[in-house]
Design a protein that fits this description.
(6S)-NADPHX binds at residues 58-62, 130-136, 159, 262, 323, 376, 440. By secondary structure, the protein is an alpha/beta fold. The protein contains 19 helices and 18 strands. Helix 12 packs parallel to helix 13, helix 15 (438-451) packs across helix 16 (456-478) and helix 16 packs across helix 18 (492-498). The structure holds ligand NAX and potassium ion.
């Protein structure tokens, strides 16, 4: 599903009004009625006090329309207009009149107004700012945000939590409304998925307000949210007259004394993702543990006992995953640099491979085209330098990806895979995955997909999805805390099977 920025949303809006021959107030009515229906279905006439905080733009207009419908259905509603601007939008003014016609008189809050006491049993609707917030918010309006946050009431935000900017960070963590539930219009926004801004929202849901489907389908977007519908077309079924050679041969290079487990997890990840064969290249100390723990794996060893010194193998792999547990000592750096100079095989680079690249940036020119790099935030920072905020991080990653023709998988709560100007935001995964080894497994899964012939970008995006989905399925049995990286491997099969489970069956399965 496409993630639109502010400009693209306003364009979709304009296109829809022209195509459907409707006015902006008609679209606002449609949008706000969706919110009313959502609330009415759940509240069913309940007399809980509802405070609706409206701004004076169209987000505020949505709040006024909602207020009118709630009042007309007998709900207890107090409307507060946060009067932050002399200029009020046309649709806001039309709906203010309509509200007055319905005999509702909003309280107008200004710089010196006293904000009503907000009881924690109340429901607060946050319709102060939407996607139109452009400049710093006045201090007294920030105070309104703080009062809402302090109330501990249930906060239902409309479109986005008020105070969040669509393209930069909030200056301080108390300068935007914290939503308990967010109802957003038609398309997800990038701010839902970034650590700096995502912390202002908990759950979110999209409401279809009837924006033009042709526009939504054809308009280009810089980011895409990756769910089952997006990865399903990538899936390559296994056919009958095939053999292990059909599904490629992965080579995992890495490991050092005490860090052989990283290679084990990457290698297992590859095989469970479906590669035909997997070989590991490790220091000698890795031979016995790998062969004992994982009989399906073939092992080649370095001449050195405890670290990699000379990467030398006697076959042509389909793809190589390199870096996990490898260390960054002089020998590893020398071996890795020489390997890169002579290598022509597609690569996935993780962990110490990335750390060595960061310290020796001239090596980037030796990477084959479309090399996949899978940094966690610290590794990314070592490669890119410091960034100002999440938006800046993405801009810098895109520049980096274009400069070195590489695919960068920025690991995090919502892993974002960046290639050139485009970012793919993953929707699967959970906090249980913040555990040692889960990154090694991801390296394995992506190499495993590449071995089977998936296009590089597809392998990265699909691999991230499957990895997260496997963890989502695993936590049903073990919860967040007890999830370990090998549980992710063990549930990769179920993540594949889940691709073909429709939503209804999947829900029933979860309830069982
Ligand atoms: N296509 C859609 O998604 C639709 C969106 N609608 C609503 O319209 C909203 C966008 O409305 P607007 O563009 O009017 O913007 P907002 O209502 O988000 O912002 C308020 C207005 O205040 C001004 N402003 C910006 N920063 C300010 C600041 N720091 N201090 C004071 N004033 C400031 C802006 O000029 C803006 O017009 C959406 O978030 C959504 O709620 C719906 O009404 C209908 C359809
Ligand atoms: K809002």
């Amino acid at each position: 599903m496409k993630i639109f920025n502010t400009k693209e949303i306003y364009e979709a809006d304009k296109f829809t009004l022209e195509r459907q021959q409707i006015s902006a107030e008609d679209l606002m009515e449609k949008a706000a009625v969706q919110i009313f229906n959502w609330m009415h279905t759940r509240l069913n006439g309940d007399q809980t006090q509802i405070y609706i905080f409206c701004g004076v733009g169209n987000n505020g207009g949505d709040g006024l329309v909602l207020a009118r419908h709630l009042v007309q259905h007998g709900y207890r509603v107090t409307v507060c207009v946060v009067n932050f601007n002399e200029h009020r939008s046309k649709e806001f003014l039309i709906n203010l009149d309509r509200l007055k016609e319905a005999k509702v008189w909003p309280k107008f809050l200004g710089e010196s107004s006293i904000i009503p006491q907000l009881e924690k049993e109340a429901i607060i609707v946050d319709a102060i700012f939407g996607i139109g917030l452009k400049r710093a918010v006045a201090p007294w309006v920030l105070e309104v945000f703080r009062e809402i946050n302090k109330s501990n009431a249930f906060v239902l935000s409309i479109d986005i939590p008020s105070g969040l900017f669509m393209d930069h960070k909030v200056p301080n963590n108390d300068e935007a409304v914290k939503s308990s539930y967010l109802l957003s219009f038609q398309v997800p926004k990038l701010i839902f998925f970034l650590p700096d801004t995502g912390l202002f929202l908990d759950q979110w849901e999209l409401l279809d307000i009837g924006l033009d489907t042709d526009f939504l389908m054809h308009a280009p977007s810089d980011y895409e949210l990756i769910g089952k519908a997006e990865v399903l077309p990538f899936y390559r079924p296994r056919t009958k007259y095939t053999h292990k050679g059909t599904y490629g041969h992965v080579l995992i290079i890495g490991g050092s004394y005490g860090k052989i487990g990283a290679v084990l997890m990457a290698a297992k990840g590859s095989l469970y993702a479906g590669s035909g064969l997997v070989t590991a290249f490790v220091p000698k100390c890795g031979l016995v543990p790998l062969q004992s723990a994982f009989p399906e794996l073939m092992v080649l060893t370095d001449i050195n006992e405890t670290e990699i010194t000379n990467i030398d193998f006697n076959f042509t792999p389909t793809v190589i995953g390199i870096g996990v547990g490898m260390g960054t000592g002089t020998n590893a750096v020398k071996a890795f640099s020489l390997f890169l100079k002579n290598n022509k095989t597609p690569l996935v680079i993780d962990a110490d491979g990335l750390n060595i690249l960061a310290k020796n940036p001239d090596l980037f020119s030796d990477l084959p085209p479309q090399t996949v790099l899978t940094p966690h935030p610290k590794e990314l920072e070592r490669m890119l330098g410091k960034w100002k905020n999440d938006f800046d991080k993405l801009i810098k990653t895109k520049e980096f990806s274009k400069k070195h023709d590489c695919i960068v998988v920025i690991k995090g709560a919502h892993t974002i895979t960046v290639y050139g100007d485009k970012g793919y935001v993953n929707s699967t995964g959970n906090p249980g995955m913040a555990t040692g080894g889960s990154g090694d497994v991801l390296t394995g899964v992506i190499t495993g997909l590449l071995a089977q012939g998936y296009a590089t970008l597809e392998a990265a995006v699909f691999g991230v999805y499957l990895h997260g989905r496997a963890a989502d399925i695993a936590i049903r049995e073990c919860g967040f805390q007890a999830l370990v990286a090998t549980d992710i491997i063990a549930h990769l099969g179920k993540a594949y099977l889940d691709l073909f489970v429709d939503q209804v069956n999947s829900l029933q399965d979860e309830q069982a």
